């Protein structure tokens, strides 16, 4: 007697959100099953991978990343290489240097970089800020304006600045809005509701429900995503049916395991390998928990996760 | 749905005889309902009650024990599909694979031993060895391999579908309770007999999920319920589908035939690609692998992996805690500034990470705060001026000369009280968020305040 | 002459002018000549927004005028007046667009005329976020240049966008006022028809930010009414054209404030006469319900949570106020809007300079708030925050509450210039900031006059505190219409939902029904949501269809049914943060309660933490339930099983802390005196047998009650 498993297909589905334009536009979400449960129902849009570049250039990156971008000096050249990285679906430009407590790059300079990158590539573009809520609000609104017509995703609006970010990106300049909350289903839902109340169409919203590197409170990420997907699919909660995008590179390359030098931790071996595995394992875990897209930066990580996704979908 | 404690209590003798080890029948009933104690511990249950209860209280997924002594591990016994529903109980265990055809067996054994470290009170290492039988090399070579591997202090999993080879291998290692991963549709009767006789857990495999199901059902019919299920190596997609479906069938659809732990060989699914194996081991750690086999294990793969496992398998109601003590960072010594926060592992990691990034030499002082976050601990009275000052007087003052203490911004309210209770100390209030610590400390340093 | 006559008259006059202008243009340029405003994708934005039709040439413009004519009905009904106002505005747009014929540039510095789409998008974001709290449209000439500039500056200081039409522009130029989009003062044009350019901003905002479909006039007006916080200040004299334009503004939801008194008709909240130009600002802000954000606290010392734990020792103290020795109090009072002047800080009595260093005095401060959604029930919620607010001031220490407060001000703070009024500034700014959802206006009185303090403490404050306590005491589950959900702890306990009722506070002990209600009003999307209780299923155990639905919703389906008053049937779930836990003790037919602080054994054979691990996590566990301390003396405590009579054991400390109120309830419900004497504790028994013997000896009522299971 063969095994007869019950299908876990749901009546509700994750909303499909498209970013970018033209042939290279990507669709996020759309599935009506749990992550990679293709045995329940086909998953039309496989999870996508974004390649992270920053306004700080390549100086602080590990050798493997520098090597990949060898010869690229301008932001346009770097962005071009990023979109050509095997396995890449979109490019993510992060304005790390905009932080008032750091480089404090001016909004005008950031806009210029954003335009340079936006004009250089045909793949969809996602914009990340510097996490300073006031600066990001201003930065995002100007960048959204400068990149009109490119259907970029602004990642992201947070509880503190959602009005300015969502109004600019989602209403004034017709871009996609990322809604970022800190690993809590209720906060995620509340932010989605508030953004909806501003008048932003929910079909233009992508969530970042928070992230952590593996080993750093990752249980909250798993549980938040498990619960969000359960609410969206099993309960049909329309306020949680947005696809999820998770910036993995930011967290993964910033923990001790990826940062400690080989001199300090000789038994741990290659620092670059550690960074890659932290990025790859964190990405695999967030995808398994429900992310519809991940943001990575090392070419090996991008190739590996791309291979993983292809093998599963 | 499992029975409620009160339903079980009604069937107990209600004598509070304490013979079960619990002080009252009510306490016993509640523990049985939780799955913490077996019903059979009560010697006075009536036959009728036992019959009623054992079916209802039988767990949907069996708990399987493998290995002995320090290398004894519990697999399975899960009751939920998502950790937030209750908790996951049995961590996946990681194995490194070695084949009797391998040229460099000794070197591989060394590799398997290499990763060994402590993370928040838990030893992190490769717990198992997955030993594959190569028919071309013969039984003796396999037995040699098993003998060598048996000395490593790791639990063995014998990947062997040859009945004679399995017998020979078990003859030298069965006392250490290995797993015999060798039953399939063609040999299950003989293999089951071998495993039963040796008293070891039997691994079952099939060409696909249906064959796996049928073979498992057939084994159960033979009376063998000491099983683990090998999800196969046909493809990543199949392995994942099988792993998820057997767990879901067991827990959600009460299909007891699939109520066993799993074996996933990611080493075979992505042979020669250690980074892909890292991705897969992470995937199966989150989704339902019980024994996960890799070709090797280095620190780069291990550091995120064991952290991930520790996170996912933590009990949501029992937070991870770090040991109280003084943690010097960036070469901090007796003259370096002191900072304090709670013992909640996540807080500790985040704070210590930021402190390390600041490069400022300091001492991070961790006191017992019940494993709660700063505000929760403060609200629960576990982080108070008394707890901080007492710990500092007893443990820090004898060792550290610096008399400056930085407290979390969220408990700025404690500043005055701590200063009152710690004469000679200057208390400085830190920012509310850990990410602001780098700038804060650098500023203090630049201003010559620390 | 009636208002209708004036509107209709003005409308007809403008219509005539427009018709003549269009005909003149056709004669000059021909029908096919293009008409458009520069830098907009919205054609003639106002006409397009209202009708959904685009106008590209003079022929179409002429046809459009015919459409406008159909709006100009002449019944003397409000709607006719409004539509004529809209028609007037559209005519103005036609007149204005003709000025741009043939690529002309009709406006020059400082006037803007038509505003480009890019400016709308730029302005729209702060409008949506509330960073631009209001849009002032100032029309005509102020009585004097000084008054004009003062009014413009007052709006600018509040962050409002100020648009100018007519003579006021020259007045501002004359005064040398810095103007322009960057400083949010935008002179539009000197003809009255230039006012259409700000209307165009409002309507394009609706199309861009409100996703309003062009031509959906209803949605358009709803959007401008709800989302565009504009208002008009029109200086006298008002001619009929301006009155007609005003009707259009009112139709869009923008009130008109004027100093014209001749031949004017007041319409509440819409057409307001304010003869005093210096009060235009306050009148307009109130009429349009604009909330001005308080961004900084105007005090000479720092304000931050880092100072919360600061202790001011006697030697460092400039002055002290001590409610235990002299009369002090702190109070929030909800008032009518007319009684409150926003940001008025009044000090009654001597200031700190007049006190001797280190001396002790009386102080009282009353924060009077007004707001449409303000309720007296929020007063104590605000008041409880005072402690935190005042402690965050550098050099100020505050302890206690109500009339038992103590405040110390340090010498350093005093030397920096900190005085009594700054207490008012802090309270004002914090209350406005944190409670802006319900507080529209706020004023503070700081009283240091000792006699007045004594009088107000006894005659105002104490009676009010008593009244509040009485209200709390009389609040019952039956006396209210709704309960509240609380999911604050779902981060720890994902499927748990607390149903908070007046007689059953949240099981953490920290969220009362009033707290939940305030949380809901202040943060409508937050953790506390209204639960109706209109569909009772079973009154005995307190089960309601609507409560079940809410619980199912907020637990994401994990929990389907819950009772409010039973621990045996569908009991409420527990998170992990309950103060107490009660569990059935079958041998004595009652319940044992234990609390977090008590680590010892209970007669159930389980400690608090063992019980907690079995009960927590948002799972229903019949026979066991987490709850707050205060719930123990509630009449609703396991009412379905017979109520507090069932309590057979509590830790001694807990028993003592609830004894008074528990005895009172027992007396009232069952006529039992000193009920707590019958309840066991750890000094009497830690096992069921000894407990049973004790209960039998005392004749505990639970022994004679129906079996619980």
Structural key phrases:
heterotrimer; B: 450 residues; alpha/beta; 3-methyladenine DNA Glycosylase II, Chain A, domain 3; TIM Barrel; Rossmann fold; five-stranded mixed beta sheet; globular; C: 709 residues; Helicase, Ruva Protein, domain 3; Bifunctional carbon monoxide dehydrogenase/acetyl-coa synthase(codh/acs), Chain M, domain 3; six-stranded parallel beta sheet; four-stranded mixed beta sheet; 37% helix; 16% strand
Question: How is this structure best described in words?
Answer:
The complex is a heterotrimer of chains A (313), B (450) and C (709). Chain A has 313 residues and is of the alpha/beta class. Chain A is built from eleven helices and ten strands. Chain A has a single domain (37-312), classed as Dihydropteroate synthase-like (TIM Barrel), CATH 3.20.20. Chain B is α/β, with parallel strands linked by helices and 450 residues long. Chain B is 40% helix and 17% strand. Chain B contains 17 helices and 17 strands. Chain C is an alpha/beta fold and 709 residues long. Chain C folds into four domains: 3-103, Orthogonal Bundle (Helicase, Ruva Protein, domain 3); 117-287, Rossmann fold (3-Layer(aba) Sandwich), CATH 3.40.50; 305-466, Bifunctional carbon monoxide dehydrogenase/acetyl-coa synthase(codh/acs), Chain M, domain 3 (2-Layer Sandwich), CATH 3.30.1650.10; 482-704, Bifunctional carbon monoxide dehydrogenase/acetyl-coa synthase(codh/acs), Chain M, domain 5 (3-Layer(aba) Sandwich). Chain C has a six-stranded parallel beta sheet with strand order 3-2-1-4-5-6, sandwiched between helices. A four-stranded mixed beta sheet of chain C has the order 10-7-13-12. In chain C, strand 4, helix 10 and strand 5 form a beta-alpha-beta unit. The longest helix of chain C has 27 residues, at 3-29. The mean pLDDT of chain C is 92. At the A-B interface, helix 7, helix 10 and helix 11 of A face helix 8, helix 9, helix 11, helix 12 and helix 13 of B.
């Amino acid at each position: 007697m063969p095994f007869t498993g019950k299908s876990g297909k749901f009546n509700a589905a994750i909303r499909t959100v498209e970013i970018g334009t033209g042939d290279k536009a990507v669709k996020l979400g759309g599935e009506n099953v749990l992550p990679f449960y293709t045995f329940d129902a086909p998953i039309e849009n496989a999870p996508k991978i974004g390649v992270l570049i920053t306004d700080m250039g390549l100086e602080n990156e590990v050798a493997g990343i520098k090597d990949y971008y060898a010869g690229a000096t301008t932001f346009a050249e770097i962005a071009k290489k990023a979109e050509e990285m095997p396995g890449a679906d979109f490019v993510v430009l992060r304005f790390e240097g905009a932080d008032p407590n750091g480089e404090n790059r001016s909004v005008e300079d950031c806009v210029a970089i954003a335009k340079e990158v936006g004009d250089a590539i045909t793949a969809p573009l996602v914009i990340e800020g510097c996490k300073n809520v006031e600066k990001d609000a201003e930065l995002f609104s100007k960048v959204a304006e400068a990149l009109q017509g490119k259907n970029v995703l602004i990642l992201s609006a947070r509880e503190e600045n959602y009005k300015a970010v969502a109004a600019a990106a989602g209403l004034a300049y017709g871009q996609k809005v990322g809604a970022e909350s800190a690993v809590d289903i209720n906060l995620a839902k509340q932010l989605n509701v508030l953004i909806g109340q501003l008048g932003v169409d929910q079909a233009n919203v992508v969530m970042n429900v928070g992230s952590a590197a593996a080993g750093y409170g990752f249980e909250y990420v798993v549980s938040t995503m498990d619960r969000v997907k359960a609410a969206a699919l099993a309960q049909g909660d329309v306020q949680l049916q947005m696809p999820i995008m998770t910036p993995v590179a930011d967290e993964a390359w910033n923990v001790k395991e990826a940062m400690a030098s080989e001199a300090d931790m000789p038994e741990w071996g290659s620092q670059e390998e550690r960074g890659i595995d932290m990025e790859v394992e964190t990405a695999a875990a967030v995808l398994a928990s429900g992310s519809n897209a991940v943001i990575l930066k090392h070419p090996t990580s991008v190739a590996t996760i791309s291979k993983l996704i292809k093998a599963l979908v | 749905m499992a029975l409620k404690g009160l339903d079980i209590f009604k069937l107990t003798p209600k004598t509070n005889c304490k013979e079960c080890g619990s002080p009252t029948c009510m306490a016993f009933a509640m523990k049985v309902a939780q799955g913490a104690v077996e019903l059979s511990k009560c010697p006075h249950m009536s036959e009728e009650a036992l019959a009623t209860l054992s079916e209802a209280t039988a767990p949907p997924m069996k708990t399987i024990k493998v290995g002995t002594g320090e290398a004894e591990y519990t697999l399975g016994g899960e009751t939920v599909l998502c950790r937030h529903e209750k908790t996951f109980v049995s961590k996946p265990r990681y194995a490194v694979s070695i084949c009797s055809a391998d040229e460099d067996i000794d070197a591989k054994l060394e590799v398997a031993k290499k990763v060994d470290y402590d993370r928040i009170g838990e030893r992190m290492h490769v717990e198992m060895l997955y030993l594959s039988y190569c028919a071309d090399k013969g039984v003796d070579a396999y037995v040699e391999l098993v003998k060598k591997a048996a000395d490593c202090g790791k639990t063995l999993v014998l990947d062997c579908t040859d009945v004679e080879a399995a017998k020979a291998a078990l003859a030298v290692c069965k006392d250490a309770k290995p797993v015999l991963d060798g039953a399939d549709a063609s040999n299950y009767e003989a293999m089951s007999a071998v495993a039963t006789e040796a008293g070891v857990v039997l691994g079952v495999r099939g060409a696909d999920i249906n064959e796996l199901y049928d073979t498992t059902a057939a084994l159960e019919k033979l009376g063998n319920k000491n099983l683990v299920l090998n999800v196969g190596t046909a493809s990543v997609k199949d392995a994942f589908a099988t792993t998820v479906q057997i767990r879901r069938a067991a827990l959600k659809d009460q299909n007891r035939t699939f109520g066993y732990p799993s074996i996933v060989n990611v080493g075979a699914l992505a042979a020669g690609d250690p980074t892909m194996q890292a991705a897969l081991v992470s995937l199966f750690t989150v989704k339902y692998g019980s024994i996960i086999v890799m070709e090797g294990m280095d620190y780069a793969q291990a550091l995120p992996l064991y952290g991930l496992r520790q996170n996912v398998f933590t009990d949501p109601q029992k937070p991870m805690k770090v040991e109280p003590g003084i943690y010097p960072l960036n070469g901090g010594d007796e003259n370096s500034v002191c900072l304090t926060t709670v013992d909640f592992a996540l807080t500790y990691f985040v704070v210590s990470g930021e402190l390390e990034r600041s490069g400022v030499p300091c001492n991070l002082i961790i006191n017992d705060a019940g494993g709660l976050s700063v505000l929760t601990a403060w609200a629960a009275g576990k982080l108070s001026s008394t707890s901080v000052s007492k710990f500092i007087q007893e443990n820090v003052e004898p060792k550290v000369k610096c008399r400056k203490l930085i407290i979390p911004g969220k408990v700025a309210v404690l500043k005055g009280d701590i200063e009152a209770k710690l004469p000679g100390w200057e208390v400085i209030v830190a920012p509310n968020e850990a990410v602001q610590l780098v700038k804060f400390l650098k500023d203090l340093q630049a201003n010559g305040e620390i | 002459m009636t208002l209708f006559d004036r509107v209709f008259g003005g409308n007809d006059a403008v219509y005539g002018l427009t018709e003549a202008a269009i005909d003149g243009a056709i004669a000059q340029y021909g029908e096919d000549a293009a008409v458009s405003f520069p830098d907009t994708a919205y054609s003639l934005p106002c006409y397009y927004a209202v009708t959904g039709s685009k106008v590209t040439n003079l022929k179409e413009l002429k046809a459009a005028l015919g459409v406008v004519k159909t709006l100009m009905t002449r019944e003397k009904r409000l709607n006719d007046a409004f539509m004529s106002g809209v028609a007037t505005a559209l005519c103005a747009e036609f007149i204005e667009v003709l000025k741009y014929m043939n690529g002309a540039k009709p406006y020059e510095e400082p006037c803007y005329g038509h505003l480009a789409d890019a400016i709308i998008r730029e302005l729209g974001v702060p409008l949506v976020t509330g960073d631009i709290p209001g849009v002032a449209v100032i029309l005509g000439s102020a009585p004097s240049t000084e008054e004009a500039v003062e009014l413009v500056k007052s709006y600018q200081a509040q962050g409002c966008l100020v648009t100018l039409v007519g003579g006021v522009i020259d007045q501002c130029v004359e005064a040398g006022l810095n103007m322009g989009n960057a400083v949010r003062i935008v002179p539009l044009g000197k003809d009255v028809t230039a006012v259409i350019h700000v209307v165009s901003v409002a309507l394009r905002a609706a199309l861009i930010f409100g996703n309003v479909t062009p031509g959906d006039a209803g949605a358009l007006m709803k959007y401008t009414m709800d989302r565009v916080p504009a208002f008009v200040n029109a200086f006298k004299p008002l001619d009929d054209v301006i009155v007609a334009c005003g009707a259009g503004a009112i139709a869009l939801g923008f009130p008109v404030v004027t100093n014209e008194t001749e031949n004017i008709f007041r319409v509440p909240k819409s057409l307001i006469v304010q003869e005093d130009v210096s009060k235009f600002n306050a009148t307009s802000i109130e009429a349009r319900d604009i909330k001005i954000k308080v961004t900084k606290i105007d005090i000479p010392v720092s304000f931050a949570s880092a100072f919360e734990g600061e202790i001011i020792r006697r030697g460092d103290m400039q002055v002290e106020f001590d409610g235990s020795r002299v009369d002090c109090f702190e109070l929030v009072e909800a008032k009518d809007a007319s009684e409150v002047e926003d940001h008025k800080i009044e000090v009654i009595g001597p200031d700190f300079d007049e006190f001797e260093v280190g001396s002790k005095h009386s102080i009282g401060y009353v924060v009077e708030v007004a707001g449409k959604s303000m309720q007296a029930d929020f007063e104590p919620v605000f008041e409880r925050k005072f402690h935190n607010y005042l402690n965050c001031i550098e050099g100020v220490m505050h302890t206690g509450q109500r009339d038992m407060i103590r405040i110390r001000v340090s010498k350093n703070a005093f030397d920096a210039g900190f005085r009594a009024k700054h207490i008012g500034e802090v309270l004002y700014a914090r209350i406005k900031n944190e409670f802006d959802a319900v507080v529209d206006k706020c004023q503070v009185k700081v009283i240091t006059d000792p006699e007045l303090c004594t009088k107000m403490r006894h005659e105002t404050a104490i009676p009010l505190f008593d009244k509040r306590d009485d209200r709390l005491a009389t609040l019952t589950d039956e006396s209210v219409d709704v309960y509240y959900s609380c999911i604050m702890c779902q981060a720890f306990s994902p499927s748990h939902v607390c149903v908070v009722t007046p007689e059953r506070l949240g099981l953490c002990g920290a969220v009362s029904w009033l707290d939940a209600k305030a949380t809901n009003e202040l943060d409508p999307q937050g953790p506390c949501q209204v639960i109706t209780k209109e569909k009772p299923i079973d009154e005995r155990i307190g089960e309601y269809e609507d409560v079940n639905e809410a619980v199912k919703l907020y637990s994401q389906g994990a929990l389907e049914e819950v009772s409010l008053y039973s621990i045996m049937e569908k009991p409420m779930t527990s998170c992990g943060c309950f103060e107490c836990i009660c569990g059935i003790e079958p041998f004595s037919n009652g319940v044992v309660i234990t609390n977090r602080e008590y680590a010892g054994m209970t007669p159930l054979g389980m400690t608090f933490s063992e019980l907690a691990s079995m009960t927590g996590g948002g799972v229903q566990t019949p026979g066991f339930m987490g709850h707050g301390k205060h719930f123990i003396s509630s009449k609703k405590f396991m009412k379905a099983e017979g109520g507090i009579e069932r309590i057979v054991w509590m830790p001694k400390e807990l028993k003592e802390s609830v004894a008074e109120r528990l005895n009172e309830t027992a007396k009232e419900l069952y006529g039992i005196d000193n009920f707590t004497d019958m309840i066991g504790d750890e000094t009497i028994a830690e096992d069921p047998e000894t407990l049973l013997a004790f209960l039998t000896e005392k004749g505990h009522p639970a022994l004679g009650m129906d079996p619980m299971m």
